[in-house]
Amino acid sequence: MNKKGYDLIMVIFEVLVVASVVFMSLQVAKGYAESTTVDKVNTATDLALMVNTFVGTPGDSIVEYPKNVSQFSIVLSDGGVKVFVKGESEIKQASQTFYLPEKYSAEGITEEATKICLRKDGYVITLFECGVNG
Fold it and tell me: Residues 115, 50: one domain?
């Protein structure tokens, strides 16, 4: 067998394998960059942390979430917060669990609201669209 021909075929094969791996990696990275999964998870985590902060804050307060969340629907309940795109399957929803003290409750639903607010009124924490119920 010709050693030079065999080496050339192996080099070509290795280049093709490396090129296809790079191409597939870029496609996966592009898919993650274009998805809203990270934004949903970050929004759910932010809101859960805001609720926990409200529990530790004395008195009544209100805070506006600083990001545009118009592409999401958000549900706040006693057990946590869910962030999702309307019509999306439940498996693609981002959720964050939190635990409220005995007297506290959390509630609220927003659908494609540009700006959202959280309000603590006594022992009730409410999610609402800013400017509508505020």
Answer: yes
